[in-house]
Design goal:
This protein is mainly α. It is built from 45 helices and 4 strands. A two-stranded antiparallel ribbon has the order 1-2. A two-stranded antiparallel ribbon has the order 3-4. Strand 3 and strand 4 form a beta hairpin. The longest helix is centred in the last third of the chain and has 30 residues.
């Protein structure tokens, strides 16, 4: 039953094929000339046959054999005789069917004649007959199907008996097979679409995979290697898709192993060994018919072939620099396979294969089941010498490679040395010559890279506007240094590869030894060589500490000498770094990169020693702080990062605590320099940065420093730049001092000063009743007092006897009587803190330098006055005399020639108004009548002209009635009256202020002046005449300036409403209605 069931399925399938093959045979044999309808019917029948065959393959391929395939092939063979009469679609369908028949029908039992016919048909379809042109061009889809069918036919033919070594039919099939392979060569090399190239490569791979006769494959070897060499070598390889390259490498591996594998040609290898032993070459046999179709494999053939293969491989192996990893992995598999399978036959190719395998081997992506180069070295010890030679060549050529312009080539060269070093270490291939050459090569390569890199654009900025972190040092990025060498973005990857090489090179002992040799070289050279050696020594020491842990040192007592040498090398490095830092504070010119590396060494030492590094702060903290004033932004950034690391490593919460805790000798160092008149930009900038970092906590300790600054100002007042630098320190003192929690010791709580005027309180009925009740009580109290004084006194006047005696004592000792009220007054006075006293001294000093010829200094001093005034205001007994002292020079700055100084003066006066209040009333009244009012009008007119110019010369004018009366607006809104004058509303006010003119200097000065007027009206008492002038002056501004309008309304709301009414910005209320009274209409 089991045998009958497949037979029944086979019979059923045969009947299905018969129903299609018979009509197809009749169609093909019936007509001589093919009509379009015949072509359509033939296409339908062929597609039906293909569908039926493919469906049966999916259901049960076991019933398919060569007989069914031959039965199906009969009608299409007749169709192929008339292929010129049928469209390409029909031929494509036939070829697709032939491929299915060869793969699942004929399999390994295809005859020699049929093999020859199929190979020739498919080859001629693709490339035409030999010496003839193609009859018609085929579309890409047809070519693709043809190569697929050709691959299936080659697989079937190669597995058949026709190509067996002892088969007499081989001479008939070999030429056809060779022509098919040649067609595939052409498709691979012509640059056709990738899918066609892949199918052509699979055809070549099928030919070398299924054919077992090496004499036949040897005939195809030269053309195959040449074709693949063209595809896999630059520049073609750079334009070829990755999948094509990977497939081509796989085909090359199959070709070389199947032809030149040690197992396949072991007889030839044995003959070569005998000939080498006898020193006598074997004579070739005569030229027979067999030798024309099959190549005789001899030792001389092997030698010549290996030489040609080496030439091809030397070009193909350049793919190891390909940018994609999958291509590199395919090339690595090729090298490992050839070193293993063709170890003897391709012995002269071993150096280049070993070098490529070393460069491509990746431990992370490689599977432990795959054969690696280390496994091969263990099997073939002679490969170890090739490993050492390759590594030495890479190390020696590294400086030369670093001179090229391709960064990727540099990175590959460094990566190769790292991989080679790992191979040498794992294989225990020690060499003192290799170690010495590695040190020299690293130093020379780094020098070449530094000299060849484009210098970064360092902006020499004498300012200190760099943002500092006074918060916790755990903030992101505050403990990471920016690169000193190879800092350009294009060199980032190369620098990373060099750092990886330094970190993983050989053992810790070798790293320390290399670092020691570098330090010896550092002290003997200068310039770029010194910088490169210094940086390498530091990185090597740092890498050695990273690789050795404390636990290893405890468990391994043999490393005690190694640890001692490591500590000695690092101590030498730290001492040299300390000398570099000290030379900077002494104003010795040193390359900034050396100083930056020295800062990194200091920070690294602190991270290792932790709190034990605190004694070293005496020597390094001030030199590190001096870099905060460096004009080089990289050095400033390094100094900030170093301070953050020092604070974190030594157990401080932040840099402020670090500097405050060590402020005694830090401040003494700066003060000593100032006292000795060592007034360098570094000293003042360091002091400013220190104050900025520490905040108000350091200000009370700066008495001596501020005194030294005052002394320097007295001695160098004629140097504007120096004076400006010194005042920048005082400005920072003021900025941080005003942040103090308590400037006055008054019950432990600070008191805010507020001089703003308040609106009058509106009394309600209850308030009126309370007021009347108070008046009644006062009247009753006066009446009671009047009754008491009527008549004679009932009791004696004057004090009692004891009190009289007391008064007599006071008359006799008047001095004691005078002391008591003074004591009482002193008790009522506020007690100033050192910070308050310091700020008062700074404010007093500003009056002498507000006339400096340097505009920026004048501006900074005015800003200082604006900053310090609110902080000093609570103690009026101290602050008001200071206002009296600085007032003349501050008010004069309103007439300064520089607009930004005028703006700063307006802000300073506004701050004085807020701090002093009515104390300035008489001063402003005097100045107003002396020309201040005219100054305001001039500033207003200049701003109006600037805005008018920005609008094409059409300035807006708010007009009043020609008779001087009140202008009653016809309506509220935006528009134009019949007489052509504008009616304003809040919407039109906002629109008239737009335009570029408001960004002019005149407009900015006027805006500052308006703010000052708002501060005057808001905080200072002004008389009615001055108020009216101010209101008229700002009549066009205050409607859209809420602060100014509110300040004016607090003083006189009715006048403000009337001014708005005159300008048409408010409408009158409704006409009141009252019986017997008639009100005037609008």
């Amino acid at each position: 039953m089991a045998t009958a069931e497949p037979s029944a399925r086979r019979t059923q399938f045969f009947q299905e094929l018969k129903a299609l093959c018979v009509p197809l045979s009749q169609l093909v044999l019936r007509a001589q000339d093919t009509t379009p309808q015949d072509a359509a019917d033939a296409l339908r029948l062929v597609q039906s046959l293909t569908t039926a065959w493919t469906a049966q393959v999916s259901r049960d391929p076991s019933i398919l054999d060569e007989k069914l395939a031959s039965y199906v092939f009969f009608p299409i063979s007749h169709l192929l005789r008339k292929q010129d009469q049928y469209p390409v679609r029909v031929i494509e369908a036939v070829i697709r069917l032939i491929g299915a028949l060869a793969q699942h029908g004929w399999k390994t039992k295809v005859s020699a004649d049929l093999s020859q016919q199929l190979l020739l048909f498919l080859s001629f379809t693709l490339g035409g007959a030999s010496g003839q042109t193609k009859k018609r061009d085929l579309p890409e889809e047809t070519v693709l199907e043809t190569f697929r069918a050709l691959g299936a036919v080659i697989t079937a033919v190669g597995a058949s008996a026709a190509l067996a070594p002892s088969s007499p039919d081989g001479d008939q099939v070999i030429p056809a097979l060779g022509h098919s392979v040649t067609v595939a060569f052409d498709a691979v090399a012509e640059g056709v679409p990738p899918l066609i190239q892949l199918e052509a490569l699979y055809c070549i791979q099928a030919a070398f995979s299924v054919v077992k006769d090496n004499t036949i494959l040897a005939q195809f070897l030269p053309g195959t290697v040449s074709c693949l060499n063209k595809l896999l070598s630059p520049p073609v390889a750079q334009k070829t898709q990755r999948r094509v390259l990977i497939a081509a490498l796989g085909v090359l591996q199959t070709v070389l192993i199947n032809v030149l594998g040690d197992l396949h040609i072991r007889g030839v290898l044995k003959q070569r060994e005998l000939e080498q032993a006898q020193q006598k070459p074997r004579e070739s046999s005569g030229d027979s018919k067999e030798s024309k179709l099959r190549i005789e494999l001899t030792p001389s053939w092997l030698t010549a072939t290996a030489s040609q293969v080496k030439i091809a491989l030397s070009s193909i192996l350049r793919l190891r620099n390909h940018e994609f990893e999958d291509v590199q992995q395919a090339l690595d598999r090729l090298c490992i396979a050839l070193l293993d399978e063709c170890h003897r036959s391709l012995a002269e190719c071993q150096p280049i294969l070993v070098e490529t395998a070393m460069a491509l081997e990746d431990e992370q992506s490689q599977s432990p089941l795959q054969t690696s180069l280390r496994d091969l070295v263990a099997v073939y010890p002679e490969l170890g010498e090739n490993v050492k030679l390759a590594l030495y060549g890479w190390v020696s050529s590294l400086p030369r490679v670093m001179q090229c312009n391709d960064d990727r080539v540099k990175q590959i060269a460094v990566r190769n040395i790292l991989r080679g070093s790992k191979h040498a270490a794992s294989l225990q291939l020690d060499s003192s010559t290799l170690e010495d050459s590695l040190a020299d090569s690293l130093r020379d390569s780094l020098v070449v890279l530094v000299k060849g890199s484009k210098p970064s654009r360092i902006q020499e900025n004498p300012g200190t506007d760099l943002a500092l972190s006074s918060s916790a040092v755990s903030d992101a990025g505050m403990g990471v240094f920016t690169p000193v060498l190879l800092e350009n973005e294009g060199q980032k990857a190369t620098r990373g590869e060099i750092m990886t090489l330094i970190s993983n090179i050989s053992s810790t002992t070798q790293q320390v030894r290399l670092a020691t040799s570098m330090m010896a070289y550092v002290r003997d050279v200068d310039g770029i060589d010194q910088i490169a050696s210094y940086w390498l020594a530091f990185e090597l020491i740092k890498a050695s500490y990273a690789r050795s842990s404390d636990l290893d040192e405890l468990l391994d007592f043999s490393n005690l000498d190694e640890t001692k040498g490591q500590e000695e090398a690092f101590q030498e490095l730290f001492d040299f770094s300390t000398s570099i830092l000290s030379s900077h504070s002494d104003m010795v010119v040193v390359d900034w990169r050396l100083e930056a590396i020295a800062l990194e060494v200091t920070a690294f030492s602190a991270t290792r020693m932790k709190s034990d590094f605190r004694p070293e702060l005496i020597d390094v903290l001030y030199p590190v702080a001096t870099f905060l004033g460096s004009p080089n932004p990289q050095l400033r950034s390094h100094a900030i990062t170093t301070l953050n690391i020092l604070a974190a490593s030594c157990g401080y919460r932040d840099v402020s605590e670090l500097i405050v805790d060590n402020a005694d000798y830090m401040v003494n160092s700066v003060s000593l320099r100032l006292n000795t008149f060592d007034i360098s930009p570094t000293s003042t900038k360091v002091l400013k940065m220190m104050i900025h970092l520490t905040g108000p906590r350091l200000v009370p300790f700066l008495d001596d420093v501020v005194a030294a600054v005052f002394a320097a100002l007295d001695n160098y007042h004629g140097y504007p730049v120096l004076v400006e630098s010194l005042f920048s320190v005082l400005s920072e003192v003021v900025t941080q001092g005003v942040k103090s929690d308590a400037l006055l010791l008054e019950d432990g709580t600070p008191r805010a000063v507020d001089h703003r005027k308040r609106r009058p309180v509106h009394l309600g009925m209850k308030d009126i009743l309370d007021f009347l009740e108070r008046r009644r009580k006062k009247r009753k109290q006066r009446e009671d007092e009047a009754e008491l004084i009527q008549g004679h006194p009932k009791e004696p006047w004057g004090p009692e006897k004891s009190e009289a005696k007391s008064l007599l004592d006071k008359l006799e000792n008047p001095d004691e009587d005078e002391d008591e009220p003074e004591t009482a007054v002193e008790e009522t006075q506020k007690t100033s803190t050192p910070t308050y006293t310091l700020l008062s001294r700074v404010l007093t000093l500003t009056q002498h330098y507000l006339t400096s010829p340097t505009p920026t200094l004048r501006k900074s001093l005015l800003d200082l006055v604006a900053t310090v005034s609110p902080a000093l205001a609570p103690d009026e007994n101290t602050f008001l005399p200071l206002i009296n002292a600085v007032w003349p020079v501050v008010i004069t700055r309103l007439h300064d020639s520089e607009p930004f100084v005028v703006i700063a003066a307006c802000k300073a006066l506004a701050a004085l108004c807020s701090a002093a209040g009515d104390f300035l009333a008489s001063r402003f009244k005097t100045e107003w009548s002396s020309g201040l009012a005219k100054w305001f009008k001039k500033i207003r007119d200049d701003a109006a002209r600037a805005k008018g110019a920005s609008k094409g010369g059409k300035a807006t004018v708010i007009s009043h009635s020609s008779k001087g009366g009140i202008l009653i607006p016809g309506r509220v809104g935006t528009g134009e009256r019949p007489d052509g004058k504008l009616v304003y509303s809040p919407a039109t006010i906002s629109s008239t202020s737009s335009g570029l003119g408001r960004f002019s200097q005149a407009s900015q000065v006027w805006d500052a002046a308006v703010d000052m007027l708002a501060a005057i009206v808001e905080n200072v008492r002004v008389d009615d005449d001055m108020f009216d002038e101010i209101l008229d002056l700002v009549g066009d501004v205050f409607p859209r300036n809420e602060r100014l309008r509110e300040a004016l309304e607090v003083v006189n709301a009715d006048a403000v409403w009337l001014a708005l009414y005159e300008r048409g910005l408010v409408s009158p209320g409704p006409v009141p209605v009252m019986e017997g009274v008639e009100f005037a209409q609008k």
